[in-house]
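Page header: ASSEMBLY MODEL / two components / 959 residues total.
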Amino acid sequence: MTQPSDKHAVPKAGENLKIDRREMLAGSAATIAGVALSGAATAEQPAVPVDARDPLIRTPGNLGAAHSRRDGPLKVRGEAKFAAEHKFPGMVYGALVFSTIARGTIRTIDTDAAEAAPGVVFVMTHKNAPRLAPPEPFYATRTGMAGSSLPVMQDASVHWNGQPVAVVLAATQEEADHAASLVNVAYDVEDAVTSFEDATAGADVAFYAGRDLKYVAGDAEAALAAAPVSVDREYSTPQQNHNQIEPHAVTVAWQDGVLRMHDCTQGVDMSAITMAKVFGIDPSKVHLTAEYVGGGFGGKTLWQYHILAAAAAQAAGRPVRMTLTREGVFRVCGGRAPTRQRLALGADRDGRLTALIHTGTTVKIAHNAMTEPFTEASHHMYQADSMHLEVRVGIMDMLGNTFMRAPGSAVGTFSLETALDELAEKLGMDPVELRIRNEPDNNPTTGKPFSQRALVDAYREGARRFGWRPRSGQRLGRREGEWFVGTGMASAYYPYKRFGGSAARITLTDDGKALVETAGADMGMGTSTATAAVAAERLGLPYEDVDVRHGDNKLPGSIIAAASQQTAAIGASVAAAHAALVAELAALAPEGGALRGQPAAALKTVDGSLALAADPSVRISFADLLARSGQTSISVEATAPPPTEVSEWSMHSTGAVFCEVKVNAVTGELRISRICGVYDCGRILNEKLAASQFRGGIIMSLGMAMMEYAQFDERNGRIANPSFGAYYMPSHLDVPEIDVAWTGIPDPQAPTGARGIGEISMNGPSAAVANAIYDAIGKRVRDLPITLDKLM
Amino acid sequence: MAITINGRAYDAPKDVRVSLLDLLRDTLDRPGTKKGCNQGACGACTVLVDGERILSCLALAVQYEGRSVTTIEGLADDDDLHPLQSLFVEHDGFQCGYCTPGQIMSAVALREEFKRGLPSNISPDLQASPERSRAEIKERMNGNLCRCGAHNGIVDAIAAYVSEDNE
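Prediction written out in full:
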């Protein structure tokens, strides 16, 4: 059945500024770590979302084939157009002026020199900016996509060091940049909270994603004190930044009342709706495309620069291209918040955990809904007799922190997995064996059955591939010349998520080809390539005959490429659209024929035909069906059922990481010489692209381990290294050849059997590196990054 | 004097502040060359000038009058991909594709550097022809950052491209 697109019928904007728990998403029945943005099961729609009898789960056909990226030829030619590469007639270039204080008020802002500078067409400050509603932040409402709810250039107040205080539009980027340097701002400075200690003193338990970040089972402190073997350690992780190589950018034009945006967002529909609410226009009056996005990792959402570009374009009556400078990205687009964690483990002599305590603090701003949930993995990984998991959050005057690849679990697994290594040493037990002994039968905190979990297989396969030498409390590190060599391992974890509201449209044409359309995004994961394979398999068409469109808010559904959930969301949408298509095709079957009047469940699509499921030789080709109906194409749209699978099952991906490091005896230089990851993530939809995804997360985690560190100056709240010259991240010389593998066991509860793979490999390597360093030199480093000064 | 870009002559900009990168992207609307950091730290803007790789963000366009610039758009003939472009697709040497033009242009120049016997920082013998090893490739490609983590695929593609069998 064709469902008309009613995607923009959304609830009214809240008037809220500050986010508090009452204003955040309620009704989180279908949530796990990440909230289900919408679509918990309702009385009217109690559908079981994913059919465990789905033939695609049992017989995947060509799924998994190593197709090359569909957009590959375009990208290697430099012809894929990114946000800042679109042009409008009469377009001008934008530049931003950033505040230099963390909190206070603009006393005077002198724009005379800037306005008089060559090429300048408009200078915008809080004095002349259009009146705008504050944006809705991500997780605070169903469609919010902004980094914070702070009003954008509406008054003289300054909320963080780096906040945009003026926008300059000029005929060229050079003219805009120069004029921006001529804006003079004087401030009345107010006291700001810019120290982590101050911000977290007396901090409350965080409320995030619809729940308090606190879980208590039994008396963990007493169990810890009574445990014959225990570890109790403090850890810290710094702010990290996504540092996509494409700097954030947007090209905007107001065209006959429609805001046209070429953007680089991970959620085209949510970004468009959030912009519409800010400007007080109907969401149908925003047309936002983001076909190619130059890396996302959680950071390509909606930030003040989008709103400022559109506001300045409106005020100046000119289209605007706004590309953030690299410094601008650090000033305007948030990163991962710093954390301080306590990880304590108690065990009996056999290594069974009697206490698991994972508590600590982090910081956020008053105007966002994001707390780094670093206890995430501790909820789901190991069986323990008693647990105390708790995240407390303090409010800081800084740029709003945000989601970065594997929020919470990336930094939380660092402490959990290094503490386990210490415990294994004290027990005189191999760290792999320790983990296997604490492998739970059911989810250790919810008690729900696992939909599928083969972590023990991943440990064993990883140990085999890596050549892991079991140990019993002793270090096996050795010296080779001036290098100490050591090995270490850790587990990986990431939850399965699927957000509601996703939809897909399938259009079948009389040449036997299909077009699949969703409002999904592709920041490089290979969305269109994977979607084509899934749709081809469902439709019974050759892979080459399926075309895919994405990255346009006018396409069906609300799909965000976040939380590793897009593959599941699209998979469920394509399945729903396919079921609707089968019903429509059945209605076109000849009167009196074997296919006519059959329920959709008794039919399937195979080899470009509609066929009886029980006897596929009884069939009629799509072309014949269309010809009979006198149509050249048939188009069907359907919304995916609500994600009820997560309320019935414990659905998580897991993995095992093994690595070898070298530490220079003279300089402390750290090198990663070998690393291997084996993942249990359900079905793998494309071996080639999956391998790259896994490696990408491992490399970002190596960066977290070795070098990544946004230097937040606690004296003034300013990031002191806002550049690629001073914020280091892995480069070719830092990256070894990475061995990745997977169990490939389909998840019977996930659409197409696939759980999503974008983030899990971010979790584990940093701990494996720290454990390997200990094996090499006998030093435990619990404060990231592990720079060489900590190894001397 | 004009600047030759992919075989065509263009006037140098009147504004001397305009970088070669902004000339390409903004003035000439040839955005295949990417701007990642605009400070010489990421390599996304790598182009060839008379066959040598340079960072076009650190190059003032007016300095390139009389020189010949090749960008990613000038690498392939018509419908065919350049061999290295094909190898990047085959070896999956990218995800988002934003650093890719710079990686490819850098590696095209790199092969010529190997052919000319230029040593790198890690070459053990400055006189001998350098080994076309993964270690040498990584050393010579280290100025081209990739954040998606396609490094293995990038090196695979370049290793295939620079191998002497491929000449």
